[in-house]
């Protein structure tokens, strides 16, 4: 699994921790940079568990924001309620050479007949509500590079708990992926089928997830960040011949430090 994809899987609470609290207080302006180490168990055949370092960075301005591989503009911001225009890299692509040829063969696929899957760029809109109840975030993104031609809609609920210097952020979410999106990253392509690859078209899918993130200040400007995420793969995705047969979920964990300028 690519380092960038590890970042996607590992840090669902990072944006919330870097933005504002659930009472709607304004975020701290400026840049944050850091480094972390993530570990994730890839569901793709032969990739296995990977442990990789990656940089963390974020920027919070009055309107503009940047959080890792995504960013945007606050179109409406009342403190407790935001509507944002969003842009996000989709780094789910992979090289067929990185997968196990023997594992693919065991699933009925010939590696030489398969194509790589490319990364993409998504754009869309998001909304968030914050209060004493926690924070609810909804976003809809669509591929603007015609890589997959797909789109997805996600809903996530996060609650903030404080224990001494620690801030704990448990979250639960669900993501609906369109059939074009799942076909590109989990199915077989029409050009591959023409070469003799068995057709697998998973259709749209719903992917639930649970996560816990934690932050703690380490002095005036340094912070510790860590977290765990588990994404449950529905049968439509776990049955993909590109995946390990026992890959019913994707666990990931990360930890690192950041510095706020």
UniProtKB/TrEMBL annotation:
InterPro entries according to UniProt = MipA (IPR010583)
**GO cellular-component term (any):** cell outer membrane
What Pfam families does the record point to?
MipA
State the compartments where it is located: Cell outer membrane
Q: Does the keyword Signal apply?
A: yes
Signal peptide interval: 1-17
Q: Which UniProt keywords are given for this protein, alphabetically ordered?
A: Cell outer membrane, Membrane, Signal
What PANTHER family does the annotation carry? Answer: MLTA-INTERACTING PROTEIN-RELATED
Q: Which family does it belong to?
A: Belongs to the MipA/OmpV family.
Q: Quote the protein name from its UniProt record.
A: Structural protein MipA
Its source organism is Luteimonas chenhongjianii
């Amino acid at each position: 699994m690519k380092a960038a994809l590890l970042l996607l899987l590992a840090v669902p609470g990072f944006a919330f921790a870097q933005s504002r609290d659930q009472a709607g207080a304004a975020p701290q302006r400026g840049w944050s940079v850091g480094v972390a180490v993530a570990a994730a168990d890839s569901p793709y055949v032969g990739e296995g568990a990977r442990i990789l370092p990656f940089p963390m960075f974020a920027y919070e301005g009055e309107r503009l924001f940047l959080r890792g591989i995504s960013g945007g503009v606050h179109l409406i911001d009342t403190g407790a309620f935001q509507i944002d225009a969003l842009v996000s890299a989709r780094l789910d692509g992979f090289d067929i050479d990185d997968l196990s040829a023997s594992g693919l063969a065991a699933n009925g696929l010939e590696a030489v007949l398969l194509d790589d899957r490319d990364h993409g760029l998504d754009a869309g809109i998001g909304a968030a509500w914050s209060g004493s109840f926690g924070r609810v975030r909804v976003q809809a993104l669509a591929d603007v590079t015609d890589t997959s031609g797909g789109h997805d809609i996600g809903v996530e609920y996060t609650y903030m708990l404080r224990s001494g210097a620690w801030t704990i952020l448990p979250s639960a979410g669900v993501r609906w992926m369109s059939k074009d999106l799942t076909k590109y990253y989990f199915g077989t392509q029409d050009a591959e089928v023409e070469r003799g690859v068995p057709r697998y078209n998973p259709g749209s899918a719903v992917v639930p997830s649970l996560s816990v993130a934690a932050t703690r200040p380490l002095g005036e400007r340094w912070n510790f960040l860590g977290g765990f995420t588990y994404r449950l793969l529905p049968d439509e995705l776990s049955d993909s011949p590109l995946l390990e047969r026992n890959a019913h979920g994707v666990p990931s964990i990360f930890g690192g430090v950041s510095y706020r300028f």
